[in-house]
Write a structure and sequence with these properties.
With 251 residues, this protein is of the alpha+beta class. The protein is built from 7 helices and 12 strands. It folds into 2 domains: 41 residues, no CATH class; 137 residues, Acid Proteases (Cathepsin D, subunit A, domain 1, Beta Barrel). Helices cover 25% and strands 27% of the residues. Strand 4 and strand 5 form a beta hairpin.
Length: 251
């Protein structure tokens, strides 16, 4: 005879094994909480943040993670002077070993010219100067006439500005067989006797040739006779050889 199993015992056995189903609404979905947080931060929604947080524990967790202050390692930045770094690298690298390099400095070159047909004077060559200049001492030695109404302001490399005392017009300079007429500005106390600047270079169409052994030659053309060309060797210039007495200044 078949045995009849008790209905209560059967139900208790199923409960022990656990339910094999659960209740779920169709709108429910396993949405990414981080993605939801990004939408909240970027888009306006028709509910308050407080209402949303009270209904969504996962979003609350993400908000807390996002707002919590954490200890992070500070980035270290060290400023480097690129020029200083390059100069220091020259001392350690051997990239210039065996190369011919420039010296720290070279002396300016000069030539000896006969001024006003009587006075030999060392003249410095400086094509970077806009004028032909002469010291007050040389002007006193020449006893030439000066035009004090024609003056210029001379600015040196260190920013100092000196006012010229006037100009000697059409002063004679003899360069070997070539005679030139230059307009010369008189300066009270320069670091030279005479300086031949751009006006001299333009008038004579001068050409300077430098050599690796530090020799230098200058070639000029006679402005009144293009066939007259002369080349002369220069020499390193020395200190001014003429000095004016301060009490003698005045004209």
């Amino acid at each position: 005879m078949p045995q009849v199993q008790n209905t209560d015992q059967k139900n208790k056995g199923k409960e022990a094994l656990g339910p094999d189903f659960h209740y779920q609404c169709l709108i429910e979905d396993k949405a990414d909480a981080k993605k939801v947080l990004d939408c909240i931060l970027d888009v306006s929604i028709p509910v308050t943040t407080c209402e949303l947080l009270s209904l969504s524990p996962d979003v609350c967790k993400q908000i807390k993670e996002f707002m919590t202050i954490k200890k992070v390692k500070a980035a270290t930045f060290v400023g480097v002077d690129s020029v200083f770094h390059f100069l220091n690298s020259l001392d350690t690298c051997d990239c210039h070993e065996g190369l011919v390099v420039a010296k720290e400095s070279h002396a300016l070159c000069s030539i000896i010219l006969i001024i006003d047909g009587c006075l030999p004077v060392e003249c410095i060559l400086d094509s970077g100067c806009q004028i032909v200049g002469m010291s007050l001492a040389i002007w006193m030695a020449l006893r030439s006439q000066i035009n004090p109404k024609h003056t210029v302001s001379m600015q040196s490399a260190n920013g100092m500005v000196d006012q010229s005392l006037g100009i000697i017009e059409n002063l004679s300079f003899r360069f070997s067989a070539i005679e030139l007429q230059l307009q010369v500005h008189v300066i009270e106390d320069p670091a030279y006797d005479i300086l031949l600047g751009c006006p001299f270079d333009v008038l004579t169409e001068s050409s300077v040739k430098n050599y690796c052994n530090e020799d230098q030659t200058i070639t000029i053309t006679n402005p009144n006779d293009p066939s007259g060309v002369t080349t002369m060797q220069t020499h390193p210039c020395g200190p001014p050889r003429h000095h004016a007495q301060k009490c003698q200044k005045g004209f």
